[in-house]
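Table 4 source record.
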Amino acid sequence: MKAYVLRAYGPPTNLELTDVDQPVPADHEVLVRNRATSINPYDWHHMRGEPVVARLLSKTIGLRAPNIRILGCDMAGEVEAVGQAVTRFKPGDAVFALLDHGGFAEYVAVPEDVLVPKPQNMSFEQAAAVPMAAMTALLAVRDVAHVASGQEVLVNGATGGVGSFAVQMARAAGATVTAVCGPKNADLAEALGATTVIDYQRHDFTNAGRRYDAIVDVAGQYPARRLRRALLRDGTLVLVGGQAGRWFQPMGHMLGAMISAPVVRQRVAMADTVAYRDKPGKLAEVAELITADEVIPVIDQVLRFEELPSAVERQELGHARGKIVVAGAGTEIPAI
């Protein structure tokens, strides 16, 4: 089968498209043909082995060379074969999942309890845009911030992958949403349900005098002490991401904020999808919202499988409207 193999840390050109053995599912595993994947910071952090400090702290990022050779955490596809003990799925079933790795390949074998049935009202390309970004947004909005009807919520970085889901989920919970994004994406933020849109290039919301019940910080350009100025006294700051760096960031940004958490009045917490244990359960919650037409994925672009390194490069640069999706090997790109 075709797969992108990472043999050494570095830029997207280090992702080598090559032939590897097709996996054989074990008794409790399912072999899935990947119909689509999408690109996340999780992928390119592992590709570059950055921030370097993560090599000392993470089990998945090797010290000198990649521990994960085939990246890709978002996957949507069709069941090709099942192990002898599998009971929930059969060949032909449409599924999607958040994986540890393997999405940048033609096929992947995964335990059956990792998979979730794909919502029928979504294409494979749309479904591939969901797992990491939407689960992170739901953790931030529902599990950490406990957003409720009538509250005021600000999403900083509102039109990227996580932010576009967070705006919709906060709106679906009955909150009034303020979106912070660039001027070119203001129309998208309004379409997603934001009542107010702030151009971060012209206005600093941390000094505007308005206070919110919750701030979901995806962009990470402000330190926590400034973000807290825009919170109510009993408000919640949810940290999702931060500006990337070679050595420490965004880990330094996140850890610095969490160190201050015990000594400030407002609640400061992280939405950490990677560490979350019941990933299939949380993805099933997202699927319910999608089936109910409460949220939809925003897709910036769908590229061919042969263009995957270019998709990673584009995602690294930032400012994509929603998610960048890559069709599976041998799959034609549909109109989105």
